[in-house]
């Protein structure tokens, strides 16, 4: 049986890991390659790196981090941030990433998703979807959560899968960094309309939150950052807890 | 020396990085002389079967691999590289290398496809030298939408269940195929990689 995945997320700027609350107020959390190694040893199932500033200057620093990480870790990792054209994705894959997250670039030009899926295969194209509650629906937010596109997150998820994405990294801006639990309602809603794996992100604060997002939110993987970076709990603790609650995990 | 076959698909370095960590000399190459001189060949791969086969043909590697394998050179196929060892793939209706009899099929639409993540390998061939120090139901990392269905069930070393059991590791004489990514499967994956190399060097 396929196991539920626990994925630490490393938000980076200028080659350093940082962590914010609802996409602002960032704190320094250390060296990305060192953290990646630590999480690999602790039993993380995958890693996600997001270049949250994603400027041209940052590109070379990011590629260097990817290359060094690829040499050090023994598990797969996804890299996202600033992917606007097929060549950006190629660079990141060549540097050693296993999967690439596409966010704003795909919303602005949806063909980017199909171009990447056709060239590199659906399995390495991850839709990075940042959603925020607006009125009675969830809207897709881009540009690091600053711009409301007015597009329904549910509709966009469905379209992106048709265009060829193989997985969705679904972040709830409303719950991000709040440590009050993942957004179960949002995750469940997206999971019910697509048949690709969903990585739920935003809001992990305690062990029960992981159980709830798997059992109630139908997520395939759960992502967390500050919880792990600041040592509030370890990956092992999360996995032991899940196993004790009859959720299949890799130990 | 191990030759990792470069046929214009991505992520060839991940297997190179893993072999580096195991201190096993390897080069990424599409050069016929290097491939000819190598002791072991590795056909890695992610992506579509049709693209993979087209690229192999364009580089003349289909013929080269065929003659090398017929001459007994060990070949390890990983993920798409395993699928290309079969006769034919449902993905793009493409004829593959045909080293192992059987076809490549797609998972049913009732499942989440691709299968992405860690899943267990059930040992079928308990005597297999490939599985030294690999406990039954060890977790390996999978990313795929298609799987191999070999005609001769005796080649199946281990299976994995995703909707149905499928062949996740196979061995036929000098050929080994793994559907998962040993190079991305933590310590257990590295152990398996070492076992495969040891088997090939015997």
TrEMBL record, chain A:
Active site per UniProt: 11, 130
Q: Which CDD domains match?
A: HisF
Question: To which species is this protein native?
Answer: Candidatus Roizmanbacteria bacterium CG11_big_fil_rev_8_21_14_0_20_36_8
Top EC class for this record = lyase
Q: Which GO terms describe its cellular component?
A: cytoplasm
GO biological process terms, semicolon-separated: L-histidine biosynthetic process
Catalyses which reaction? 5-[(5-phospho-1-deoxy-D-ribulos-1-ylimino)methylamino]-1-(5-phospho-beta-D-ribosyl)imidazole-4-carboxamide + L-glutamine = D-erythro-1-(imidazol-4-yl)glycerol 3-phosphate + 5-amino-1-(5-phospho-beta-D-ribosyl)imidazole-4-carboxamide + L-glutamate + H(+)
Q: Where in the cell is it found?
A: Cytoplasm
- Protein purpose: IGPS catalyzes the conversion of PRFAR and glutamine to IGP, AICAR and glutamate. The HisF subunit catalyzes the cyclization activity that produces IGP and AICAR from PRFAR using the ammonia provided by the HisH subunit.
Q: Which UniProt keywords apply?
A: Amino-acid biosynthesis, Cytoplasm, Histidine biosynthesis, Lyase
* GO MF annotation list: imidazoleglycerol-phosphate synthase activity; lyase activity
Q: What InterPro entries does the annotation carry?
A: Aldolase_TIM, His_biosynth, HisF, IGPS_HisA/HisF, RibuloseP-bd_barrel
User: Which is one Pfam family of this protein?
Assistant: His_biosynth
Protein EC: 4.3.2.10
Homology family: Belongs to the HisA/HisF family.
Report what the protein is called. Answer: Imidazole glycerol phosphate synthase subunit HisF
Please give the pathway this protein is involved in: Amino-acid biosynthesis; L-histidine biosynthesis; L-histidine from 5-phospho-alpha-D-ribose 1-diphosphate: step 5/9
* Superkingdom classification of source: Bacteria
- Quaternary state and interactors: Heterodimer of HisH and HisF.
Q: Mostly located where?
A: cytoplasm
Automatic annotation (TrEMBL), chain B:
Q: Which key words are in the record? A: Amino-acid biosynthesis, Cytoplasm, Glutamine amidotransferase, Histidine biosynthesis, Hydrolase, Lyase
Spell out the InterPro entries in the cross-references: Class_I_gatase-like, GATASE, Imidazole-glycPsynth_HisH
EC number annotated for this UniProt entry: 4.3.2.10, 3.5.1.2
Where is the Glutamine amidotransferase domain positioned along the sequence? Answer: 4-187
Pfam families reported in the protein's UniProt record: GATase
Q: In which pathway does it act?
A: Amino-acid biosynthesis; L-histidine biosynthesis; L-histidine from 5-phospho-alpha-D-ribose 1-diphosphate: step 5/9
The family database entries (SUPFAM superfamilies) matched by this protein are listed as: Class I glutamine amidotransferase-like (SSF52317)
A single BP term in Gene Ontology: L-histidine biosynthetic process
Q: Does the keyword NADP apply?
A: no
Give GO terms: molecular function aspect only: glutaminase activity; imidazoleglycerol-phosphate synthase activity; lyase activity
Catalysed reaction(s)?
Answer: L-glutamine + H2O = L-glutamate + NH4(+); 5-[(5-phospho-1-deoxy-D-ribulos-1-ylimino)methylamino]-1-(5-phospho-beta-D-ribosyl)imidazole-4-carboxamide + L-glutamine = D-erythro-1-(imidazol-4-yl)glycerol 3-phosphate + 5-amino-1-(5-phospho-beta-D-ribosyl)imidazole-4-carboxamide + L-glutamate + H(+)
Q: Where in the cell is it found?
A: Cytoplasm
**The keyword Amino-acid biosynthesis belongs to this UniProt entry's keyword annotation:** yes
Instruction: List the catalytic residues.
Output: 79 (nucleophile), 181, 183
What is the stated purpose of this protein? IGPS catalyzes the conversion of PRFAR and glutamine to IGP, AICAR and glutamate. The HisH subunit catalyzes the hydrolysis of glutamine to glutamate and ammonia as part of the synthesis of IGP and AICAR. The resulting ammonia molecule is channeled to the active site of HisF.
Assembly mode: Heterodimer of HisH and HisF.
Q: Which HAMAP family match?
A: HisH
List the protein's name: Imidazole glycerol phosphate synthase subunit HisH
- The organism named in the record is Candidatus Roizmanbacteria bacterium CG11_big_fil_rev_8_21_14_0_20_36_8
